[in-house]
Amino acid sequence: MPPPVADNTGNAVEVVSLTTASAGDLVLVDFVRRGGSKRMLGMWKQTAIDLFLTINHAASQFGLWDKDFNLLPPENSQRITYEEIWRAANQLMQRDHAAAEAAATERSRAAYAEGDIFNSDMWERVAQAVAKLTEPKPKGPNALN
Question: Are 49 and 34 in contact (CB under 8 A)?
């Protein structure tokens, strides 16, 4: 397979996530591609280790993910702050309080299906913020409001 260069990157298959499992000396790798299609690949354990070490080294070298292996946004986009997440959650709740969490979750899934991991993660954070804002408040003499 030729190395990726500007002329052939249009033919590349973009993998948005992968999952692994092992049985003895065999490792199964389940690749999820943009649009949701999947491919499964079986390889020897040492080959899989070498592959993942190569991916880790390349991703670390090019700054593609953080210390927790979360994909980082492209350089031209900024990290979304907690304040912006809470503001988005509040705006969704003002539009339709009952459907706010479902709306954020749907946007997250739609972004994921397009391979947009950054926006998928952002909308997942908004959905979690909506859930936190809609939790029932404790009552009684020891409740902090």
Answer: no
